[in-house]
């Protein structure tokens, strides 16, 4: 207790200290990476931006996080982050940047929180380096520059961490309750992903507190109960509300938040099992995985020439999509092959793993000499916390069946914390000639530089050979010189150590800037010279190296596969369907149809206007269609109905009017039946339907009935011939009208 009281006094004294001037440029760097040019992204992730537009219109839509102004279906995530985005849009006006702003500020806040958490125990230089490492971890600004949830989630979990550390220092149970309640709030941001940090919270509290086991169990049980209560509070309210008085819970198959939490947003992420049934035909439901792939396919097709399309059709449908550098890309989206070295594979390593070897050496140094039964120092206890955060999350991403690259931001805090704490610890061991431990610093520098050369090698055609050779050469030279000078203590050695840290952060810093340099993808954010494609593969060697989409990608320098995809696939730069597909080389669209049409590129980092409409969807509206629907609306609630959110979102954003995504996000939700649709039409709620090949899963009967009981509107009345107007519902779909008496 005396030790805890001294720590409290130390905290009060430290609070009186002046602002750390070294922290100021770090925060400015984070602000630049997270905020600069976010105002150019007009739609951001259009699926979520449309929800904010809808939530601004009524408290009913706000509470349930309705995707559409009509309150037909919700988005596929809990509402807390979108409540914050809606409040931001209410204050600053509805813009792409106003819905991105909360996440950008959260990214900056995470840098500051990590500085505070690490500095107190490991020293000011450890805090500075940890904050800088967090700011320069490429996936952190890439995600924070969008309206996706993960940046806010990480910030919330770091707030919970600060509360837990304070609970241990002050021995006050109230802070324990607050920490676990904050995890419950995080659950209402992205459901089970928030629970990934629970091992760290339990282990740290058990090890760090000096109270009886009886009290530890009682306190943790009570805190866990509170966390669970906060976690399910919104879900219980929604699930207990009559289905006819609220929107359908998007991306669930039973209209249940709890099913969504533990199924689609839970266990299915680990197993990769994304097949569910949603209709009498029991067609496989199409998830966000397939929807986003179809959107990327549309992006690619917009600039593909006829010869590429022909070659694609000739590709074998049984060929699996390849990950950059070889190997089948299970799970799609360049997330590599499950296994112990997955985080070192291309596609993931350049998002998060730049400092992992140094982190491993740091862990060895920080835990050197620790006995299992203790006693433990404060540094060892907090190191254990970060290790208990790092390992379970790393294991999950090493074996998970389905996730996106930007989920890796969950690994950024422990990696940055170990980078900061380890840099100081290894330097101290090195300077003190502490036996074998004095070799950890040069060893960490050497292996980290080697990994960074490996990460950059597929991008030689884009970034050039000089940066790669420079990092490799400087890393080797500095590591060797530090090894040779181990017995010398002078200022030159200090400068060499600082130079080594600069070298190890140089290329992560460049990667972190790529969403600004090349443009980002708000639907599937990632960092790298191809950041606007959102797929993390090696970039194009074409004249316009900034062009996004798969057609712009080229293999690493020296590859013999011509215009093929990296890894040796023979699709001439076009995206291949997963193994077992029966669509003859065409990427399967939501609902199981083939995308034989060519869609304009909505992913390009260069827009014809000053703002990017890169919402990861068809982020333009067909103005002629909009004019036709508006003119012929005779009081119907919905402007029109379509199969999924891809076509609906831009029109909701543009007009603020209800547009019905009949099958929810990807078109697979079993929301609508023929009898329900008939009743809606008779009540005058909807009469126009735009149907394409997308989103038939779970609603085939409804679509068949629409086609059999409607009249087709000639395309000349609503389809524009200009290329820019092809975004959104395009000429490849059909507009129908149904009126029932």
Q: What is the average per-residue confidence, as pLDDT, rounded to a whole number?
A: 81
Number of helical segments with 4 or more residues: 27
Principal-axis shape equals: globular
Unreliable spans: 1-5, 275-331, 535-609, 723-728
* Beta-strand percent range: under 5%
Structural class: mainly alpha
Rg result: 27 Å
Straight-line distance between termini: 79 Å
The count of strands amounts to 5
Major beta-sheet overview? 5 strands, mixed
* Portion in helices: 40-55%
- In spatial order, strands of the major sheet run 2-1-3-5-4
Question: How would you sum up this structure in a few lines?
Answer:
With 741 residues, this protein is mostly helical. It is built from 27 helices and 5 strands.
Descriptive terms for the model:
mainly alpha, five-stranded mixed sheet, 27 helices, 52% helix
């Amino acid at each position: 207790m005396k030790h805890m009281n001294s720590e409290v006094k130390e905290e009060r004294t430290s609070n009186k200290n002046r602002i750390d001037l070294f922290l100021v440029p770090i925060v400015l760097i984070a602000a630049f990476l997270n905020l600069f040019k976010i105002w150019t992204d007009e739609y951001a992730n259009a699926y979520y931006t449309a929800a904010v537009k809808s939530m601004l219109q009524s408290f009913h839509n706000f509470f349930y996080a309705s995707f559409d102004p009509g309150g037909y279906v919700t988005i596929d995530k809990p509402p807390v982050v979108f409540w914050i985005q809606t409040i931001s849009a209410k204050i600053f006006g509805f813009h792409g940047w106003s819905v991105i702003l909360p996440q950008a500020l959260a990214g900056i806040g995470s840098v500051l929180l990590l500085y505070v958490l690490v500095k107190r125990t490991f020293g000011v230089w450890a805090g500075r380096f940890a904050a800088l490492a967090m700011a320069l971890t490429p996936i952190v600004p890439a995600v924070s520059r969008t309206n996706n949830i993960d940046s806010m989630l990480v910030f919330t979990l770091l707030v919970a961490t600060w509360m837990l550390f304070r609970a241990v220092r002050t021995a006050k149970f109230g802070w324990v309750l607050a920490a676990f309640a904050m995890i419950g709030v995080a659950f209402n941001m992205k459901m089970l992903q928030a629970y990934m940090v629970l091992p760290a919270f339990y282990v740290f509290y058990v090890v760090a507190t000096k109270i009886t086991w009886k009290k530890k169990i009682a306190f943790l049980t009570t805190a866990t109960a509170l966390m669970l209560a906060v976690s399910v509070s919104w879900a219980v309210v929604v699930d207990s509300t009559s289905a006819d008085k609220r929107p359908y819970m998007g991306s669930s198959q039973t209209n249940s938040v709890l099913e969504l939490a533990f199924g689609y947003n839970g266990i299915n992420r680990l197993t990769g099992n994304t097949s569910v049934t949603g209709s009498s035909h029991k067609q496989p439901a199409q998830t966000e995985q397939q929807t986003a792939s179809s959107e990327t396919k549309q992006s690619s097709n917009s600039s593909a020439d006829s010869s590429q399309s022909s070659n694609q059709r000739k590709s074998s449908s049984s060929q699996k999509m390849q990950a950059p550098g070889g190997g089948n890309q299970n799970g799609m989206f360049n997330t590599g092959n499950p296994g112990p070295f997955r985080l070192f594979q291309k596609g993931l390593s350049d998002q998060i793993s730049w400092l992992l070897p140094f982190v491993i050496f740091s862990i060895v140094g920080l835990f050197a000499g620790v006995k299992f039964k203790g006693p433990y120092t404060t540094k060892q206890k907090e190191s254990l916390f970060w290790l208990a955060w790092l390992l379970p999350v790393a294991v999950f991403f090493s074996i998970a069946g389905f996730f996106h690259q930007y989920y890796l931001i969950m690994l950024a805090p422990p990696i940055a914390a170990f980078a900061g704490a380890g840099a100081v610890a290894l330097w101290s061991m090195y300077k003190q000639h502490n036996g074998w431990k004095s070799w950890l610093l040069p060893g960490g520098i050497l292996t980290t530089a080697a990994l960074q050369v490996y990460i950059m090698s597929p991008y030689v055609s884009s970034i050039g050979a000089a940066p790669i050779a420079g990092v490799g050469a400087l890393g080797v030279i500095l590591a060797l010189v530090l090894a040779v000078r181990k017995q010398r203590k002078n200022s030159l050695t200090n400068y060499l150590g600082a130079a080594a840290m600069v070298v190890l952060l140089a290329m992560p810093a460049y990667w972190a800037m790529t969403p600004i340099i090349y443009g980002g993808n708000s639907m599937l954010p990632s960092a790298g010279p191809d950041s606007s494609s959102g797929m993390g593969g090696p970039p194009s060697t074409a004249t316009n190296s900034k062009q996004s989409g798969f057609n712009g990608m080229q293999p690493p320098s020296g590859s013999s596969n011509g215009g093929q995809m990296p890894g040796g696939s023979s699709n001439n730069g076009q995206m291949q369907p997963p193994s077992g597909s029966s669509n003859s080389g065409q990427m399967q669209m939501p609902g199981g149809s083939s995308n034989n049409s060519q869609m304009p590129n909505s992913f390009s980092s260069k827009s014809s206007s000053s703002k990017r409409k890169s919402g990861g969807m068809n982020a333009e509206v067909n103005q002629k269609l909009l004019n036709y629907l508006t003119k012929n609306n005779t009081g119907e609630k919905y402007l029109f109905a379509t199969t999924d959110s891809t076509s609906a979102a831009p029109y909701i954003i543009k007009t603020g009017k209800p547009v019905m995504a009949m099958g929810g996000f990807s078109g697979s939700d079993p929301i609508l039946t023929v009898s329900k649709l008939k009743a809606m039409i008779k009540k005058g709620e909807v009469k126009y339907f735009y149907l394409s090949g997308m989103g038939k899963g779970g609603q085939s009967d409804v679509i068949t009935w629409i086609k059999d009981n409607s009249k087709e509107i000639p395309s000349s009345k609503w389809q524009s011939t200009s290329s820019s107007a092809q975004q959104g519902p395009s000429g490849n779909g059909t507009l129908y009208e149904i009126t029932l008496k």
